[in-house]
Structure formats: C-alpha cells, structure tokens
Design a protein that fits this description.
The structure holds two protein chains of two kinds. By secondary structure, chain A is mainly alpha-helical. Chain A contains ten helices and no strands. In chain B, strands 6-7-8-3-9-10-12-11 form an eight-stranded mixed β-sheet, with helices on both faces. In chain B, α18 runs parallel beside α19. The relative contact order of chain B is 0.10. Classes of the chains: A mainly alpha, B alpha/beta.
C-alpha cells in the first residue's frame, strides 16, 4: 500500500514548486500565445506598415526586407496584415469557446445534477446537435442570412455547446454520487450552491482543458467560414480570408498564402499544448497521493 | 528457449536449514532524483519451508510493497535494494524468464480484492487452466485438464463443477476468492503470499477463507506469508510474525509470545486498540496521532512521536532490531526499562470498568415503521428487495447499532433516513415529522429535519470536497443554520476544537489530512447544524486500528457532552459493542434480532447472529476451527 496521505504541507508545496512541469513545448507554446495575444490587443500599433495601404506596383512580390512575407495581389504587406488579422482570428474563437463553455456548464450541471426530465430535455437537444452536420448548418445559416462575422461567431457558439454539454454532464454525473455531494445535500445546502460551489470547482480542470480544445476547433472552423467568404467582410485582414484571397499567389508569393495557414495551425497547436498543461496542473490540486 | 524448473534453481545450495525465502536489508523507495520517498527501510525477513509467517501493519506501513518486491512485481517508479534470496538464489539476479517461472510455481501471490483479481471475461476454469499450463508435466488432453480443474476446485471447497464454466461476476466475493485461491495454488507453489486475503470479504466469509488457507497450508506443507492489518487474524494463522510500522520492522517474534507479552510499545498499542467483543470499556485505549510517512521518521524510532515512553534518546537515532528473548526481537531501546510498565498498562486497560447506560427518555427521535425498499434489478427478475418491512426506533440520547454484512440493506436504510433514498413502502418519522417522502416536505419541516438528523459516511477520503478548505466546508454548514451570526470563523474553530483538531486546520485542504483527521472534520460538519442524532455509516471501517479507537472515543465524548443520539451502522461487532446501548441485526433486508447490546452479543438467539458472533476474529488458532 502506498503511504497514506499524511504528507505535510511543506513537502507538498515543495513538490509543487519543483514540479511545475514546464517542458520545452509548453514554454514555446506559452511564448507563441503571448505574442499572438499582444498582436490581438495592439493590432495595427505593432504592425510595421499600414495593413490596408495598397501598392499595385509591388503586387505579389516575394519576401523582402520591407515585406517579410512579401505582398499580396493588391501590394499590401502580408506580415502587417497577419498581425492585424490576429484580432478577428483570435477574438471570435475566444468568444465561441467562452460562450460555449458558459452555455455547456449551465446545461451540463443542470442535466447531470438534476437528472430526470431536465436531463432528458437537454440531452435530446444534444442528440439533435450530434445528428446534424454542424459546419454545413453554419454555412447554410450564414449563406441565407447574408453571412457576417458576428453571425458566424454566434452560430458556431451555439453549435459547439452541445458537445461540451455532454462532457460536462458526464463529469458532473461522476461527482454527484460522491459522498461529499451527498453530505452537502443532507446538510440542506441549496441545489444551486451544491452545483456552483461544491461540484463546479471539482470539474474545473475538465472545463478548462475543454475550453482550450474548443478554442482550437473554433479558430479552424471560423477561419474556414472566412475562407468560404461567410465570415469577415471582404478586404478585412483575417487569416482565413487571406488564405482564400492569396491562394492564387501560391506560385508567385507562396509566403502570402502559407503564412496565414501556418498561423492558424500554430495558434491551434499552441493552445492545445497549453490546455493540456493547464489540465495537468489544475487537476493535480487536492488529489490524494 | 530453455526453461529452468524452479526446483533445480537452488539445487546447488544446501537446503538443509529449510529456509525458503531470506530477505536481508530490503529497502524500497519510490520516485527518482531529489524526490525519493522511502516506503520500506532495511527490512529483514525469513520464511521457512512449511512455515506461516505474518506481516502485520497499518496502512502506509509498506507491507504490500514488501510482498510485491518478493516476486519482483513492484509498480513502475518503485524500486528495491537489498537481497531477496529464494531457495538460496538471488531474486534480483534472475532473468525475467526465470522469474516468471518462479512466480506461481515457486512463490505465488493471492491479492486482496477478489473482484478485480480475476479477469472478468475469462471463465473460472480457464484461470486455473492457465496456471496449470505454466507447469511442465501437466495433463494435456481435454478430459485430463477438466478433471484436474475439478480436483483443484474441490480442494478449495467448491464441489459444484459447474463453477468452472461460470464467469467471475456470477459468483459471490467468497466464491471468487476461492476460485482465485485455486488458480494461485494450481502451480503448486512452495510459498504463498496472501495480501489481505479476507479484508474485502464479509466477516462470516472471511473466517471461511482464512480457515481454508490455514488448512491448505498445513496439508500441502506450504510456506505462507500472510499480510494483514488485523493482529487477531495474524495470531490465529501464523507461527511467527513481523510487526511493520512506517516501513520498519518494530518487532519480530512467535505469535504466542507477542500475544502474551508484546515487546514494543507499538505492538502493545495495537493490541490495546483492538476493541474487545465481550465487554464495553469506559474509554478505549488509543494511540495519539496517526501513522507517519517513513521519510518523516527516517532518523528516529518511527514510533517515538506517538509513544508514551519516548525519551530524548528515542529521537536521537533509529534503533536497530535487537534480540530480546528466545525468538523475539524488538526495535525499542528502552524495552528492558519499560517492560513492567507495559505489562501494567495492559492489565489496567483490560480491567477498566463498564459504562453504565444513561437514562434513555421515551421520546423517540427516529421511528421506522415497516419500511420496504425495492430496487429495480438489472437482471430478469425485475426487483431486488433491499429492505423488507424493517421497523426500528432510536430514542433521545440513545445510541443504537445496526449490524449486518454487505448487501444486508443497512446503508440503504441510512440513506432513507436522510432523504437520499425514498422508501417504497412504510413510514419514517424523524422528531415527529413524517419523512417517508422528503420531496413532499414543506420548507420549514425540511429545515427542522435537517437540523435533527445528520450523517457521517464511511469513506473520509471522498466525503469532503477536495478543492475546498476545511474552514470553508464548516462555514458553509454553519451558515445554513446560524443566520445572523457573523463570527462563523470563530464557530468553525470551536467545531474543530470540539472534534480534537487544532483551529489552524481550517486553512487546510482535505488532502493534507490523514484519514482519521478527515473523519473528524466530517463529524464536525455534521455537528455544525447541532443535530439531535447522527447516522454513522461504517464511520471507522476505513480507518487504521490505532486511529479507530480515537474516533470511537470521540463519538462517546460528544454523546456525553452534547447528548447526541447515534444510529451506528457497522459490520464490526466489537466496535458496536463499544458504542451502542441497543442493537438491531439486519440480515438480507430483514431485522432478525434486536435487544440490548450485551444480551444480543452474549446470548444470540438467531442462527445468523450466532454465526456473526462466532466469525469475529479471535487471537487463537482455535477460532479458525470453531
């Protein structure tokens, strides 16, 4: 049998300090996310050139010292457009991931904790979402309603939440039958309090990790919509949009087409790595060893 | 590939002394680099041919890891140093093929949990067949094999040959443990390591399994290393025993001499902590504190922090195991000085007088009237009867016991009382309120019921929210019923003090507490609403013996100080004897006997109660035969 949980506080915190689990990939991912966050917040302030300034004489030029990723068809600086484009590429998925997290936490807690009719109704809705092709629905909705960034973000948020709801419900079910929840019930704590103060902190690691994963899905999905012309307005700097616009330049200035695609992949991967790392850290607390 | 039969392995060594297993200086540690944790320190162990040896220790003593290291089955990240010689051959030097051929046929291991030890998708006969195949010269034809399996099952007391075709999940726990034993013994091992073989079983089944192991050990002339936390079990089964504590052996000796004259304060403490079945003591002798981690006591006598007789010297260095008499060795450096005091302590403890039962008012706090609870069954039979017309009552300031084995319905009844289950039929009154259906109670009635009855669960590891501090847990409970009182922190500190914990524990999270401390917090939380009665569902069965007595004493103190009633649910009759005035015996959902504790336990009338009483482990070999 392993030593009982008589570990004193000092050794516990020492172990935690010594073992933050900061591996090279995690550090690299953190730096990438930090840089992208700065671009998202400051936008054109950190862009070396005006992202909208056209220079038709210098269209589709290969990377030079002035234009790190070259220029696009209209002679706009691709590097600057990528920096400015971070805003629409990041903020949308952040809203989607957070919004979907909030919806799914409320519904998942209700379904898992209350059970019965509440559970059945919520889960039927989840089943419905599972049985419809999500991205196709988004395309149809965006297409018929005229597209637009806000509409795309809201649609994706609503479409993502059932998947999260199912995950949250699963972990809530697991917690609900544990004695600590049952003793809260026998004490007479209100259901709301049990859901929010007792159960929710315990499922937080899953919620956090899932939100990061969801962000990675969202950035790909949203860029996809922009690529199809259903996201941001034409002309606006956006990674998905740029990928579509510059696709034709693959043989004249490959960097202009590859760079936005690479950014999407790198951001999604970095968030994934950070999400995993955070999950490890958060789920560690309070665990009996 | 050229397999070596284990019989040949030690052929070049003289075996005249009959030593099968010789362990010298075994040290087991977990982790790597700077984060190495000791699990076992410098352990010496010997097992002779045909000898039954016990390793006794509480949780965290390192007994299971010791057993695993003997067959080189330590979990990943755990390593061992020192010498383990099986028939004169160093186990560490064997190739993994040689080791595999020793496992099962040389050294076999029976694990604690019969529910996970057998592969659920493999028929029982197949488990035995696999072990048979590991041996050379075994029958090959199907009929031979079938006959051999039948013979092996018969050996462990299974006469129904259809069991061979049954899947493990179709059998009861005791049956599974028998099948596991047959599979383990199919390799005809020289030595059997049994790691808590009966702990997961009911008391009546436990006795049967232990008797079976003892009988097989004797008839086969097999060596046995029995690992247990229960001194009485070790005394009844073993000739020699090792007392392990925080990774170190504190005492070695013949079972008889240890029982009659323990030569280490820890062994004495263990013996005294074991509550007697035949009388009720006024105060249970208990050891302070809880089992430390081996690292925390690496440089002193491991028991010194909890020892009544500890002096400066005991903390100075780690005392070695020194021979103190024929066949007995102790790691206590003061043993010659304190031997007489220890004798006196033991004599004093066993004569401490009965407690008189206080006046019980006629006021019934809990009344259960013909409650039946049915559960939907997953099988074809439709419904499973968990409780059948159970009637029971608990008076004010009274403590009432409910005993029964797993599946008897005792936990279901507890859950019905606090509204976690709803009885199918019958009525339950709590303090005059009909709570047969908690959902239909008015807000005021519900509040009153919650203030009347609270529950303490069995498992202190999951009954506290792991992410919240002890203080926050208590304050939440206090805030519910103390409106307007602002100094909730002070109230929480009072509660902690009442259950014997320092107020500073409010800042800790449950993971930083030991099992006993967590159970104290769980009790404090139940006390927060000032209940009249606490339902205790096996509150000490997950705790070590040395801690169990502390908690039982706490229950008693709380009753005397606060006038609380208990409905005390347990499978352990000795524990019940110490805590309750009246007793109900539950068997398969029905109350088969009830009455004053002393009457029920001393003159049991129902056949099942008699069987239950006879199953309580006693510290002699005659217990297994009875």
């Amino acid at each position: 049998m392993m030593p009982e949980a008589t570990t004193s506080i000092s050794t516990l915190s020492a172990r935690r300090r010594a073992n933050l689990g900061l591996s090279v990939p995690v550090v690299v991912a953190a730096v990438i996310v930090l840089v992208i966050a700065v671009c998202t917040i400051l936008g054109s302030l950190v862009a070396p050139q005006d992202p909208a300034a056209q220079n038709l004489l210098l269209s589709a030029s290969s990377p030079t010292r002035d234009h790190l990723f070259g220029t696009d068809q209209l002679g706009r600086d691709v590097f600057s457009r990528i920096i400015v484009g971070a805003r629409t590429a990041i903020i949308g998925p952040v809203i989607i991931a957070l919004g979907s997290m909030i919806i799914s936490n409320i519904l998942g807690l209700l379904a898992g904790y209350r059970g019965g009719l509440t559970d059945s109704l919520i889960m039927r809705w989840v089943d419905l979402a599972y049985s419809t092709p999500g991205l196709l629905v988004t395309i149809v909705i965006s297409g018929t309603m005229g597209g637009g960034y806000t509409l795309a973000v809201i649609t994706l948020m609503v479409l993502f939440s059932p998947f999260d709801t199912r995950i949250v419900r699963g972990v809530v079910l697991e917690q609900r039958s544990l004695p600590y929840v049952e003793s809260s019930r026998t004490l007479g704590l209100s259901h709301l309090r049990i859901m929010t103060r007792e159960i929710w902190p315990n499922i937080l690691p899953f919620v956090v990790a899932n939100t990061f994963l969801e962000f990675a899905y969202a950035i790909v999905a949203l860029s996809g919509l922009s690529f199809l012309g259903l996201g941001v307005a034409p002309g606006a700097p956006d990674w998905g949009r740029m990928l579509a616009d510059n696709e034709a330049l693959l043989y004249t200035n490959a960097a202009s087409a590859l760079a936005p695609g690479a950014m999407i992949v790198i951001t999604a991967a970095a968030m994934n790595i950070l999400g995993d790392w955070l999950f490890e850290r958060v789920s560690d607390r309070g665990r009996v060893r | 590939m050229n397999r070596v039969a284990p019989q040949q392995l030690g052929a070049q060594y003289a075996e005249s002394d009959g030593v099968l297993l010789d362990v010298q200086g075994l040290t087991i540690s977990a982790g790597t680099g700077r984060q190495v944790h000791r699990i076992v320190t410098e352990l010496d162990l010997r097992a002779d041919r045909g000898e039954a040896v016990g390793i006794v220790g509480e949780s965290g003593s390192g007994k299971s890891m010791t057993a695993r290291s003997l067959i080189r089955l330590l979990p990943r990240g755990v390593s061992s140093q020192g010498s383990i010689a099986y028939r004169g051959r160093e186990v560490a030097s064997l190739s993994s093929h040689e080791m595999a051929s020793i496992r099962g046929t040389g050294i076999a291991m029976l694990l604690q949990d019969p529910f996970t030890m057998l592969n659920p998708v493999m028929r029982c006969g197949k488990h035995i067949e696999e072990s048979l195949r590991a041996q050379a010269g075994r029958p090959h034809t199907k009929a031979d094999l079938r006959g051999e399996i039948r013979r092996r099952l018969y050996e462990v007391g299974i006469e129904d040959e259809r069991i061979a075709d049954a899947y493990p999940f179709q059998l009861s726990g005791g049956m599974r443990q028998r099948v596991a034993l047959a599979a383990v013994l199919a390799g005809d091992p020289d030595i059997l390591i049994a790691d808590e073989p009966s702990t997961a079983l009911d008391v009546t089944t436990q006795k049967q399994i232990l008797a079976l192991i003892a009988q097989l050990q004797a008839s086969r002339g097999m060596g046995l290393i029995l690992i247990t936390h229960d001194l009485r079990v070790a005394f009844s089964m073993c000739r020699r025993m090792y007392v392990l504590y925080a990774g170190s052996v504190l005492e070695v000796g013949d079972a008889g001499s240890i029982e009659s004259q323990p030569l280490h304060p820890y062994t004495l403490g263990l013996l005294l902590s074991e509550p007697p079945l035949n009388k009720r003591l006024s105060i249970l002798p208990s050891m302070p504190g809880s089992v430390p981690s081996p690292d925390a006591v690496a440089r002193c006598c491991p028991f010194a922090p909890r020892c009544l007789w500890a002096r400066q010297l005991c903390f100075a260095s780690k005392p070695p195991l020194v021979s103190v008499g024929p066949g007995q060795a102790s790691a206590c450096i003061r043993i010659s000085e304190i031997q007489n005091e220890m004798k006196a302590a033991r004599a004093g403890a066993s004569t401490s007088e009965h407690i008189s039962i206080g006046p019980v008012s006629a006021d019934r706090l809990v009344a259960v009237d013909k409650v039946t609870k049915l559960f939907a069954d997953s099988g074809a039979r439709g419904q499973h009867v968990a409780l059948k017309e159970v009637s029971l009552d608990v008076g004010r300031n009274e403590s009432v016991g409910l005993v029964g084995e797993s599946g008897s319905g005792k936990t279901t009844l507890a859950r019905c009382l606090v509204g976690l289950e709803r009885p199918t039929n019958g009525r339950i009154w709590i303090n005059g309120v009909d709570v047969s259906s908690f959902d239909d109670l008015s807000r005021d009635n519900l509040r009153q019921v919650r203030r009347t009855i609270q529950i303490v669960f069995q498992d202190p590891y999951s009954s506290l929210n792991p992410v919240r501090t002890v203080g926050a847990i208590l304050i939440d409970a206090l805030a519910l019923h103390e409106h307007g009182r602002r100094d909730l922190k002070v109230a929480a500190a009072d509660l902690l003090e009442r259950v014997g914990l320092p107020a500073s524990y409010a800042a800790r999270k449950p993971a930083m507490l030991s099992g006993g401390e967590r159970q104290r917090v769980a009790i404090a939380r139940a006390l927060a609403v000032k209940p009249d009665i606490i339902v205790c569902d096996e509150p000490v069965s997950a705790l070590d013996v040395s801690v169990q007595a502390q908690i039982l004493n706490l229950f008693r103190t709380l009753q005397q100080e606060l006038g609380i009633s208990y409905l005390f649910i347990s499978h352990d009759l000795a524990v019940v004897r110490q805590t309750v005035d009246r007793l109900y015996v539950l068997y398969r959902g029905e109350i088969v006997e009830s009455g004053p504790t002393a009457t029920v336990l001393d003159q049991p009338r129902h056949a099942y109660t008699r069987r239950l009483v006879a199953s309580v482990p006693r510290a002699d070999a005659a217990w297994l035969q009875s």
